[in-house]
Amino acid sequence: MSRFLLQHLLIVLFISSASGCFIKNNDIVPPHSAPETLVEPSSLPSYLFWGNYSGINYLTVSRNQHIPQYCGGCWSFASTSALADRFKILRNATWPDYNIAPQVPISCDYLSFGCNGGDPMTVYKYIYDRGITDETCATYQAKDRDNGLECTRLSRCKTCYSNGKCDIPDTHLVYNVTTYGSAIGETQMLNALQNGPIACAMDATNEFENYTGGIFIPTDHEVVTNHVVELVGYGVENNTKYWIGRNSWGTYWGEKGLFRIIRGKDALAIEEYCAWATPDPVVKQVNKTLVEEKTVAELKILEAFERPEKAGCRVEKSELKLQAEANGYVIEENAAPALPAAWDWRNMSGLNYMSWTRNMNNPQFCGACWAHAATSCIADRINILRNDTVAQISISPQVILNCNAGGNCTSGDPIGVYKFAQQYGLPDDTCQQYLAEPVENATCTARQVCETCIPPPPKEGQTSNCSAITNPPLWYVGSYGFLAGVTKMKQEIYTNGPISCGIYYSKSFENYKGGIFSELTMTTKVNYEVALVGWGVNKAGTEYWIGRNSQGTMWGESGFFRIQMYRDNLGIETDCSWAIPNITRTN
Ligand SMILES: *[C@@H]1O[C@H](CO)[C@@H](O)[C@H](O)[C@H]1NC(C)=O
Ligand SMILES: *[C@@H]1O[C@H](CO)[C@@H](O)[C@H](O)[C@H]1NC(C)=O
Ligand SMILES: *[C@@H]1O[C@H](CO)[C@@H](O)[C@H](O)[C@H]1NC(C)=O
Ligand SMILES: *[C@@H]1O[C@H](CO)[C@@H](O)[C@H](O)[C@H]1NC(C)=O
Ligand SMILES: *[C@@H]1O[C@H](CO)[C@@H](O)[C@H](O)[C@H]1NC(C)=O
Ligand SMILES: *[C@@H]1O[C@H](CO)[C@@H](O)[C@H](O)[C@H]1NC(C)=O
Ligand SMILES: *[C@@H]1O[C@H](CO)[C@@H](O)[C@H](O)[C@H]1NC(C)=O
Ligand SMILES: *[C@@H]1O[C@H](CO)[C@@H](O)[C@H](O)[C@H]1NC(C)=O
Ligand SMILES: *[C@@H]1O[C@H](CO)[C@@H](O)[C@H](O)[C@H]1NC(C)=O
Ligand SMILES: *[C@@H]1O[C@H](CO)[C@@H](O)[C@H](O)[C@H]1NC(C)=O
Ligand SMILES: *[C@@H]1O[C@H](CO)[C@@H](O)[C@H](O)[C@H]1NC(C)=O
Ligand SMILES: *[C@@H]1O[C@H](CO)[C@@H](O)[C@H](O)[C@H]1NC(C)=O
Fold this sequence. Notes:
Pfam families: Peptidase_C1. By secondary structure, the chain is an alpha+beta fold.
């Protein structure tokens, strides 16, 4: 038996009784055993926080490894999240964020142990060797190769179709790192943090699990490194030095998902083993045929299938519209503010207010375009109202499905989402992971709104021990309604942020790859929903809308599109809706 297998066996035996998610792989020797530049801490700034670096937030969206079932994937979350943030730093926080997929190493990194735990360094080695994809290619499912999500040719990137089958998209994006290494001890960690967040092993004690805020100073002394977190900064307060960390336990934990812990004392063994990686600015667009050539021999082949036409996913529920109208939720054309020739919430003098890009058809097909368009508009508008301060907001589209708030995986109406948000509020994505799941009993139980799950990771076919998070943080909208016509649409986008709009979903729109889309169709019956985030005009004088689709970064212009204004535009100016969020998060 090889040393590696033996180690695996011993580890599996060991972890069957523990609940940790950190397992060091001593065989990994990273290219660097310390940060590339090392200076004395005294010559470094005394405060650094990547969530507010000179007023700019460089932290991507926060995650929750514990849903939809328990999975000890902290090692993958901490390392992919630190890398995503380093990409954001590299790109000066410009659109788009690269949300590196934690599910890929959990299924495919054989140097770690999936939901039973692993080493953040193996993730960086995996990325360096193979590259990695983003969340829209590989939605987190909290499963690994031992309980239902083995590494197949579809593990790295897939999208799904209305016939229920999934395939590698024609092209998709692959991200890489140029090098990686470790950082051990306060001085090395401080140095590594100058380049961006790092992933550090630690002991997640019960006391730490109970943390709700402030600078954590542990009382326990025995330590077992069993967890991995992202460190995103450091500081000093009342003469107490601290680290600022980000956990992968949802935004309902700690300080909105973040925490502070005393620094320089190796508290909870947090200063013993950290990993960092340098993002590669070159993002490759990979052609499906290349993926298949490379991996066909080693991986399973799905039977060939005819790609079906994608279905529409938007219906109008006239009772909702009538109700909105009765409540006076109709935008009047104002005495127009002077509208600029171009406006783009992805780039307001360099600042990007977009929440992350989603793929409604991953891990399975689900016609939830209406839910995605509406939740992304609410999240983007919260980012705008909060001046893009930490942390990135994401509103859960799965909760919309679980609560039947406007529709289901067949179709729905965004007005239903806004109405629900006004009455009951909506939680962050970290309360309910998006699974594209057509919920059989969408009854909005407390668990369907917000949940967490505890160890152990369930075996295939078993259920995880999950329970509801009571009184989860919620976001409300104050008012909502509908509008139509170029001037009102521009006014609303300009004043308040992105709006959701119905379109006719044509074959050529489905196949859109980039440029300013224009198509004269005989029918423009609305049957699909997108978000509009701005407008512009090209050199030839053609005015266009800038929109967001919910079919992943592999669709269109990194998930977005431009479409001609005024005509030949699939009816995009006929049926739009909006909502004004309240930026006070409850709890
Ligand atoms: C960000 O940091 C600046 C100082 O650099 C501070 O004035 C500002 O209040 C901070 N913003 C937030 C949202 O904490
Ligand atoms: C980020 O800003 C730096 C310094 O201003 C600049 O050199 C670099 O090109 C910018 N990168 C991107 C992707 O905008
Ligand atoms: C990632 O980048 C490194 C360093 O440039 C390179 O050696 C490696 O081949 C790249 N990996 C992939 C999968 O492209
Ligand atoms: C954590 O909180 C639970 C529930 O409030 C409590 O029973 C437990 O004693 C706490 N544990 C520690 C170590 O503080
Ligand atoms: C620092 O001291 C001030 C004043 O006593 C107190 O309000 C604050 O909460 C302290 N900060 C921390 C992190 O304990
Ligand atoms: C992918 O590669 C094949 C074969 O080289 C080529 O025919 C096809 O046009 C490429 N597809 C895209 C979308 O680039
Ligand atoms: C963002 O907008 C600025 C003008 O405000 C422009 O100079 C810059 O090129 C734009 N960036 C991108 C990536 O389009
Ligand atoms: C956002 O910035 C504006 C203008 O500087 C300011 O009035 C507003 O209070 C800020 N909002 C938040 C939540 O910081
Ligand atoms: C989805 O909602 C529509 C309209 O309410 C309904 O007709 C359809 O049966 C629902 N589909 C499923 C799978 O529940
Ligand atoms: C859905 O609800 C019905 C009636 O309450 C119940 O019989 C059925 O078992 C439930 N199905 C699931 C999957 O919970
Ligand atoms: C789930 O966890 C709770 C709290 O630890 C425990 O009381 C309960 O027995 C567990 N349920 C199962 C089915 O293991
Ligand atoms: C936002 O919510 C807070 C807390 O629930 C409430 O006090 C406030 O009035 C709301 N603001 C608006 C504009 O609705």
